[in-house]
Amino acid sequence: DREETQFGIKYLVKWCDEADGFRWDDTWKYGVGLREDGFDRTCNVVDEWKVSKVSTYYQFCKLNGHCHHIGASPEGLCAFYALGIATELVGNAGWYSMAQASQFMRECAGRGKPISAEGVTYGELRCYVKFANWRNLKQVSTTLLDKNVFGGVTSHQSTSKLCAVVLEEGVYICAAFSSLRVTHPFIIAVVDGKKFIYDD
């Protein structure tokens, strides 16, 4: 959240220990200090949200693409890696290759729609699945991919919610994002009722 005071703009900061997920009380901090500490981009997103007519910050980020790029790896390619892990886990190891992903990115750039350095959107990842299916005998179903998109788990308790949710046996591609708009994909494989996490 954000509020304007006679001494400047303040932002509501949510404090969290990355090591164990512990949350401290939220506090109001002046924007000048936050921007000096490297949170300029985050403050700008909050500013954009406050002048919009969208009721929640999360919904604003979704509507404006701030949380949709999946690419926390330095190259922004971790969504492709995650898809490769998923296809291996379902016994379709030959379906994915980095060379094929690179070719897809070159073709996107050639059509005037380059893949962002921040990563891919879900729509772009879905296009890549179609691209790769066209070049392979074994296929990945876009219908099942769309059906198994699991969203709406938010807040600092999202990890525990994800652990508690009942998932059918199978392989799931998940993406988690932070308030800094850094998003990273990972794989959940459900075997005999147990969840196993895979990451690149």
From TrEMBL:
Taxonomic superkingdom: Eukaryota
Name of this protein: Uncharacterized protein
Species this chain originates from: Phytophthora sojae (strain P6497) (Soybean stem and root rot agent)
